């Protein structure tokens, strides 16, 4: 019988035409021959397709998780059975989490791929022994880019990193549609509550927050946005959402989703103001957006269900999903972003790794953008896969757009 993890990988692969096209080329050209790639990503079926694409390109691949609750153990086992060194496991503690990262680094990777920057951070702080062999890296998510730019500003980043997260292909599709759909799907599967008519509070109105807010409204929710940036708050207002501070939103919200990538978004200031039955979830990155420690210390009692911890505070029930970790991956039935979205994001990732392998030695230490032509190439592959066609500029139109002397 086919391994359940292998079944998941095969299911995902059939809906990833762009990554499959890249894999076919990699198998022929072997652009990653001789490279050792160390990865810290969410180990699930779509990620496995990326891993196999990189291995098809000739690389030795070593992977672990980037979140203690996001690994799908059967997928990890399928990777191991296929010859990939995979150290991820679901439910690991902090010590085990970093021990697995160290196992990846023990392979002395020449290239790294991160989701949240834990691998790069470990290299620079505790595993400097591997620094000389690293050509460069790729970073998948917003939180990681924030940390990397802060590291660069302090003059501490010692090799080039491609900001995969910052491309239009990532922002417009992965962050908006991927986060928006997968977060709400996971919440509904975990809680079985109706979103229509509920007050849904979305903390942060970046690409991820906008995706969650827009999808929640489409399901009939009454959406409230909290923000610290006046321009994004105004954008949320003109997009038709109520905008208020978290102190105000805490009093009326039924369901809360944090999408900021920052810490201390929902804290002890807010919990006592909430309705009994309020549901809290995080779609940012680390589990410090919602202060679960405060809840544990102040609760009169705690009830545990699959993916839900219920804290009794002053006689009220406050429900925290997935221990405050990524709700679309860390709940028992969390599947992460839809396959078609990750087809695009992991295509960017695969080509970015190839780019670093070729040109990393010529790049300065610091954060670098994905080349625009690479992003556009992936978009064209996807359009071809879905049967869409594009118009092209005529010679007259190109001349018109490049000229400054055409008037009325």
Automatic annotation (TrEMBL):
Gene Ontology CC entries for this record: cytosol
Protein name, UniProt field: Adenosylhomocysteinase
PANTHER family associated with the record: ADENOSYLHOMOCYSTEINASE
Family per record: Belongs to the adenosylhomocysteinase family.
The EC number(s) this enzyme carries: 3.13.2.1
Organism: Methanorbis rubei
Cofactor: NAD(+)
Hydrolase as UniProt keyword: yes
MF (Gene Ontology): adenosylhomocysteinase activity
Alphabetical list of Gene3D superfamilies matching this protein: Adenosylhomocysteinase-like, NAD(P)-binding Rossmann-like Domain
UniProt cofactor note: Binds 1 NAD(+) per subunit.
InterPro entries named among the record's database cross-references: Adenosylhomocyst_ase-like_sf, Adenosylhomocysteinase-like, Ado_hCys_hydrolase_NAD-bd, NAD(P)-bd_dom_sf, S-Ado-L-homoCys_hydrolase_CS
Domain of life: Archaea
Chain sites annotated for binding NAD(+): 141-143, 206-211, 227, 283-285, 328, 337
Keyword DNA-binding attached: no
